[in-house]
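Hi there,

I know you've been waiting on this one. I reran it after we fixed the sequence typo, so this is the corrected version. Both the input and the resulting structure follow.
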Amino acid sequence: MVNHDRNRSELARTNRRAVLAEVATRGPLSRTDIANSIGLTAASVSRITRELIEADLLRELPNDDDRQLTLPRSPGRRFIQLEVNASGGYVLGVGVNVFSQAVTLADLGNRRIVRQDLKLRDLSDPEWVVDRVVREAKKMVSIHVADRRRILGATFAFTGAVDPSTGVVQTSPYLRWGEVSLREKFAHELDIPIRIESLPASVAVAESRFGAARGMTDLLVVNCSLGLGAALLSDGRLVRGQNFSAGLIGDVTPGGVPGETLDALAGGHGVLKRLFGAQLNIAMTPSNELADMLMEAVGRCQKGEPDAAGAFHDAGESLGHFLVPILGLLRPKGLMVAGPLTQAPSFVLAYKNCLREIAKDYECKIMVSDLSPQAAARWLAIDEFLLGRDLNLNDLKLSRAA
């Protein structure tokens, strides 16, 4: 027997998510624009937007459109623009890698309210790292959030391989972690919805939904740090691979360079190896010290010092050569690099020069992301908890009334 009430309820939730996503990713928009874009009737859009306004998730912009003076009035205030009400809720974004560990709180427009840098020198103990993150997150919420019902969720972007279905970090070689059940730990302590994601995947989703690659459903992102990691969006979905290991490219040995991994050729390890040679034992040096050395080298490159500029140029060129056949195979609409190495001008220039012709042939846009891990995590939280999940509008309406 068909449960018509349940079907109608599911359809209503689906339509509500569609309206919110349309406004969040393309707004400000009028009700007419929304209806035309997603194929709903004007009456349905009017009803949905009224509910979302009452829950403080959408707001009407001031009516200063010249069209109001020239077009006849009609039911539903068709041309009044709607946008996400940034002050209608909060998300937490946490980014942890060897370069920075920060907890941030933002509104629904990803306007940062507060950030706390943890500046952890030893990242090898995941229990200790989680404890510090939780303490800062709780402190932020207690100070800045009057009603916890307005916290939609938190996203944690980590360097490593992550199983998003369970929230388990499978491995994080640069943090020197084994398997860690992160979502379980955070959910227990914070009591809000949690998403755990790899850093490249966070950047890929954030940029494709809200950033420089907005609207691209086929996008390859390479995060260029001490090591290299990647994420691939295909038809708008993240490609996970076996054991969620898609994108762990640092240990790949490119053809023609026997015994050398991609990290040693094109990552920060490769840059440091070129600059310090046998003086530096990368395997025995703590990751945070390597991160400090790499950022010092970035600064030298920015000043135009020849040895640093040359080391980053060679790394960028190695990455570009590695990506040429991958670009030919995958044919993404966009290819984006992110991470600390992109702050070195010679790295980006060499990388782009290698890919210029093939990107032109395949109509692939070459981009550089300037998102921090925390900003990417917050955009991912907005995408997941505002646009991707069913919201309890009754709770939010009560919160508004209170």
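Quick highlight: The first strand starts at residue 29 and ends at 30.

Best,
R. S.
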